[in-house]
Write a structure and sequence with these properties.
The protein is mainly alpha-helical. It is 46% helix and 8% strand. It is built from seven helices and two strands. Strands 1-2 form a two-stranded antiparallel sheet. Helix 2 packs across helix 3. The relative contact order is 0.06.
């Protein structure tokens, strides 16, 4: 027998001796605790961002994530911590960003086989390759212009990669755009 159930109802109608209706024990319990779901939803959604353009599965995931953060805050508050819900969320985000920053220092596993063209695009865009500066050379064909169907010569190149690139806008495009 569940523990939230009250005593079984008495036989007959639910009226007392003066013929006034009497609520059962379970109805009284429900009325006493019915606001908790509303409070939980209101608190969980107070700092969530608008996700009206996402699929229902993504919305469901983020709703459960909001409820998980709320439950974590309630659990921490029950231990005596004095954080507001907003401060707890900010602290959580800061800690997650710190942990994500630490994991980037790990060496990447070496890949086996020939690198794909997409992998070469990613390597030229990575932030750890910051020693790419324009330099001068003899006449070279611009790599970006060639990819775009133009045949253009330039005296500028990437000093590290030794690839001919026009100063503007091709040098910036080569380092920032995936698809040339």
């Amino acid at each position: 027998m569940p523990t939230n159930m009250g005593p079984p109802p008495a036989e007959g109608n639910f009226c007392d001796n003066s013929n006034c209706p009497v609520k059962s024990h379970i109805v009284e319990q429900y009325n006493q605790h019915m606001g908790f779901v509303d409070i939980s939803d209101r608190t969980a959604n107070s700092y969530s961002m608008d996700r009206s353009n996402l699929k229902w599965t993504t919305k469901l995931f983020f709703h459960h994530l909001d409820l998980t953060v709320l439950n974590s805050w309630i659990q921490l508050s029950s231990c005596g911590a004095q954080y507001t819900h907003r401060d707890f969320r900010l602290l959580l985000v800061r800690n997650l960003i710190e942990e994500a920053g630490k994991s980037q220092d790990c060496p990447t596993p070496s890949l086996i086989g020939r690198p794909s063209a997409a992998a070469a695009n990613i390597v030229r865009l990575e932030s750890r390759h910051k020693q790419h500066w324009p330099g001068k050379s003899s006449q070279l064909h611009c790599h970006v212009c060639s990819c775009r169907g133009h045949r253009k010569t330039t005296v500028y190149k990437c000093a590290k990669c030794d690839i001919g690139l026009c100063m503007m806008p091709c040098f910036v495009d080569y380092r920032t755009k995936v698809n040339l």
